[in-house]
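Internal QA ticket QA-208
Title: Verify multi-chain structure generation after dependency bump
Assignee: T.L.

Test input:
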Amino acid sequence: MTEILINSLIILFIAVGVFFILVTAIGLIRLPDVYSRAHAASKSATLGVMSILIGVFLHFWLIEGNFNPRIILGIVFLFITGPVGGHMMAKAAYFSGVPLAKETVRDDMAPLVDREATKKEQL
Amino acid sequence: MTMFLWICVGILSFSLVGFLYRLMKGPSTPDRVIALDSIGVGLITLVGLFSILFDSPFFLEVILLLAIIAYIGTVAFSKFTEKGVIIENDRDTHK
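Actual output:
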């Protein structure tokens, strides 16, 4: 009985994680510009990988019986660095002059940054 | 349980093909770097599932290594596309 409960808990976590990774793939293929793709890749990929690693951790802890703190370390590291990496990449894309999608309705950075000047300066 | 895990491995491999599509087609460099970061994340999930399937906790160091290398790669590429240098020696680059 306990085995069935533990297995269904692990299956729930892994299924949620796989769903979010699949959502990431669909977002990376279908979204129109680099900023929305960075949004898809940083948020949902981080949530998916954290959920799958929680499932792996529960499997090794509750079924195999070894408490494995390295997975916890990996979860915390991914939770910190996933969104930070996505943010840095989107910032670099903005300052190196990657164009926004046609559907964009608002660009709050535009009055502050002269993107054409930075682009020419770099070239 | 094993059947479910193999189906999950199949779905994740399908997602990796999607990331590879964006890595090859991506119109700009940041697109490719974001796809590379996502490939790192997909590989981490695959390693986790394989460590359950093969019943060994020895794959779990690979998770930490892949996470660190993917993050350092993303940061280095973003510094490079933004400023053209990775490590700034001059403190007055912002003006």
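Spot checks passed. Chain B touches chain A through 49 residues (CB under 8 Å).
Status: verified.
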